[in-house]
Each structure stands twice: as C-alpha cells, then as structure tokens.
Amino acid sequence: MFKPTRKHMRDLGRQIKHAFPLRELSSEDEKLIKEIRNHTRSKNQNNITRTQAYFDFYKKNPEIHWALLAHLVSRNAGWNMTDIKGEYLPKMLTYKEQVDFFAFIERGNWLIFQDAYPQLLLYEESKKQNRPLFHLLSRLHVSKFMKPFWDSFWKDHSSQELTFALIINEQQYIEERVVQNNQYKQTVLNTTLFKLQDVFDFNHILFPYMTPLQKKTKVVGGTVHHFSSVEDRIVFGKGLYDLLFSIQSRLQQIVSWAESNPHTASRKDFWPRLFNDIKESAPGQVHELKGSPCSMTDPAARIYSPKLTDVWEDWIHQPAESGDWCSNKKMLQHIKKPIKVLNEDIQEIYCKTIEELELAAFAKNKFFHKK
Known about the structure:
Elements: H1 6-17, H2 27-43, H3 47-60, H4 65-83, H5 95-129, H6 147-156, H7 159-179, H8 182-189, H9 192-195, H10 197-200, E1 204-210, E2 217-223, H11 230-245, H12 248-260, E3 275-276, E4 303-304, H13 308-311, H14 333-336, H15 346-367
Parallel strand pairs: 3-4
Antiparallel strand pairs: 1-2
Helix pairs in contact: 2-5, 3-4, 3-5, 4-5, 5-7, 6-7, 7-11
C-alpha cells in the first residue's frame, strides 16, 4: 500500500501550483496529438466501444489499474442505460424522462473517456519511445492536476497513487460539466426520479466474477448514496479500487469474466438465468418474480434487459466545455486520506432492488396512468 510522505505531497502541490507554460510543439508532437485525438474520437462512439477500449488498454498495460476500474464502472453505466428501456423503468418513466436520464449518463460516460483516454494513449506512446511525453498533456486539454502524477508514476510506478489521481480528476472533470450543469439538474438530478434513487438503492456498481468451484457468477461492489457530492464520489471510487485490487484471486476471476463476456450492456451478460435481451413477458404486463432473484434458478420468464445497440442510437455530443477545474491544491487531500472499505453484501442488496423495482412498476401500472 503506497503511503505518500509529506515531502512527496509538498512536491506534488508545488508542481500543480507552478504548472509549466505551454511550449512550442515539434512536428512529431503535433502529429502524435492529432493521432491521439482521432483514435479517442473513434473509440468514443458509444458506451460499448469506450468500455471495450478501456479493457483492451488494460490488457496491454496492466500496471494502469485505473483502466480496469474504468472498464467495469463503464459496464455499469451501460447497464443503467439499458435499464431505462428494460423491464421496469419504462412503466415508471415518461418518454422524455427516459431520454433525459439516458443523456445524463451518456454525457458523463463520454466526457470521462474523452478526457482520460488521451492520457492513457500518451502513456502508451511514452512506453514505446522509452521517454516521458507528459508535457503534451496540456495540449490535450488535460487538467494541470494530472501531470505531476504521471511524472511521479513514470519514476516510482505507484499504480495506487495514479489511480487515486485519475479518480479525483475525472470526478472533478464532470462536476461542473454534468452534475452541476443546470440542464441536467433540472431534468434529472432535481427530479423525483433521482431523489428516489436512494430509496431504491438504484446506483449500484457491480463487479461480476465466476467462482471456480461453484461455476456461478457472483457480484461484489457498492452503492453510491450521494451522487451529487463530488467528495462522496471520490471516496466511493477509492473504495471500489480497493475492493477490486485487494484480493488477487478474485481480481483474476473478475478479469477472466470480463474477457469471456464481451460488453453488450444487457444484464444478461452476467446473469443469463435471470435476464434476457429478448422480452419474454406478455405485452402490457408487468414481469412478476416468483421468488428472490438471488435464489431463483429457473424463472418462468426472465427479466427483459436489452442490448444497448437495440434500444439507443449513438448520441451526438457537443464539444466538451473548456476550462481547468484545478484552481488550488485542495483535492490533494484525497490522495492521502484513508480508504473507506466497502463491506456491503451488494448481491443481496441488488436482488432486493430488483424486487422493489418490480413492486413499484406493478403499482404504477395498476393505479396510475403514465402521461
């Protein structure tokens, strides 16, 4: 476990405060930046392409732990996107609410990728050239917060510290652009729908893995209870990282599962006994569970969870808003703060959420008419 010294933290803070000015680029540098931007754009087509890009990068560069964490969290974003068109939520949301909710998740997923993936590609090119190229981060519009951490990683190889820095950076990056954006606050964050997320415990992050003895897919993870708090999202992200990398045997099982199950954004990817990407319940009827989702072995009808490409077209995004979120050294505190260990039994909690969604959809369908 990496424990930064006071001197190390002072050095990081000094480098952030006194960021190097932009310098003239060589023709080789200009060519590389153009290639990185083009490659990023091609992989940022939708949740499927960006999620796979993270995993492909991790397999080639396993020392960059954040890439695997990003892959798994992005899988969860995809599952949330298809839930909007799945078995229960369409019975509870108007068409406009569905589109607004999707746009909110998609924008955050897109923004993080277009900020983080160029950093990953620049690191990969640095390895190829056997020299650090992180002076180009500013030309890729990456926050000045990140350069000291990439420089430090190049020398010290602290995967944990770099992961924490990337967690902080990406959550701060979407803070003003998405979470505090008036459009999304009005259409999603301040609506009854989003306030009910804590009631339903809907904001789960699940890491599936296959147990070698039982030969069944289980999930570990956690629940975001205060999504609108950037500090809480950072603490949660660090907890997810600890959960993912703390047990090596389980880590390998998670990686093996991801390798064997390409992301489609259908929850059938991890629980095909409970979910199907083809609708099995009768039209107009609410799917009825015959027991706890965690204990069911052969449900009469599986829960509808479509593939992303079957229900959502690629979203056309406006360019990312300009500006550097980092104006002081305040966020450095999250590098040295202790990890808040996640100890929830997320599998049982998630199964309970499915039951609650089913009951809410049934009540909505029976007693109310969607406008």
